[in-house]
Amino acid sequence: MRIAYLDCASGISGDMTxxxxxxxxxxLAAIQSGVDSLGLPSCQLVAAEVKKRGFRATQVTVQHEPxxxxxxxxxxxxxxxxSALTPRQQELATAIFTRLGEAEARAxxxxxxxxxFHEVGAVDSIADIVGAAIGWDLLGVEKIYxxxxxxxxGFIQIAHGRCxxxxxxxxxxxRGVPLVDFPVDGELTTPTGAAIIATLTExxxxxxxxxxxxxxxxxxxxxxxxxxxxxxxxxxxxxTPSTAADTIVLLETNLDDCPGxxxxxxxxxxxxxxxxxVALTPIQMKKGRPGVLVTVQAQPADADKLAAIVLAxxxxxxxxxxxxxxxxxxxxxxxxxxxxxxxxxxxxxxPDGSERFTPEYDDCKALAERAGEPLGKVYVAAAAAxxxxx
Length: 390
Known about the structure:
Layout: E1 2-7, H1 14-23, H2 28-36, E2 43-52, E3 55-64, H3 73-81, H4 87-108, H5 123-139, E4 143-146, E5 149-150, E6 152-153, E7 155-158, E8 161-164, H6 168-173, E9 179-180, E10 186-187, H7 191-200, E11 201-204, E12 210-219, E13 229-237, E14 243-255, H8 260-272, E15 277-284, E16 290-298, H9 303-313, E17 320-338, E18 341-349, E19 355-359, H10 361-371, H11 375-389
Parallel strand pairs: 1-4, 4-11, 5-9
Antiparallel strand pairs: 1-13, 2-3, 6-10, 7-8, 12-13, 14-16, 14-17, 15-16, 17-18, 18-19
Helix pairs in contact: 1-5, 2-5, 3-4, 4-5, 4-7, 8-9, 10-11
């Protein structure tokens, strides 16, 4: 499977994305042709090789005539619908702008129909987003992965005045995305860049196992004390067909002064709120006191919600939080017949291609209780039945 990895060591913006795509081999003329079909005022994409702190990269600049227009989302989607872009390119561009519109609407307390785009409705931002959509389509990757993202620090002047970095829409777009503590004075990740990765990225975290075929470097417009570059790595996934990698958040806290009933209730609430896994481990804490280690696995978007449950329902004064990568076996549901009735289970495909069937506990328990048989006997029969079915 052909995949791409975005290494956002210096954040990400629309023009950095375009530069990385062109540097990785996407035809700039093809991107220009698609942008021309939008009907924007004279708009030219210019690529140049530059150096950032000694490292070469491609910098793409959008040159256009000055304009005062500020657009709503429907103006931009109408341009996209009336363009010569392929259906896939139109879909990507519309999805990115819609995601951006939703973030702007939440930031300003309005609806997506009433959102008034300012900076991101200008010619250069439209060209950046539509050009990126064209570029990703031409790159021909099936999945896009991305590193953790730095935002930069300080303040930026926007149409609504002076605001802190990340800008409100950028912060909204980066919810659930692992962020990097990189105290650079300036904006590293723009709303346009955040919208692109929030819409297109399969998962965030370390680089996946892959065989790299090409590497593109996109340069940002600003100069810092570090190389202001976005690195794009393109190649073939090295994951076996039966495994897939994803990124989750691990939450942990140690408790030695919390009633067992409260911990049990907390675990129930965590499961109901969408935790991937909840585990309790007995530990020994200071002064020889027995304690409990509470470990919660969460999807990145659910981490803050689940952390709030732990803090509300237990005596925890804080939690440890880390982003980790896990390998997950491909799996499917299966139903088998036993002498006492049907039971479901999960079939996992192992790296060697063989399959392992695990009967569903609740189903087996119900059959065992109804038939007056030992639970273990029902488990064995269910496993044997899967072998006969297959």
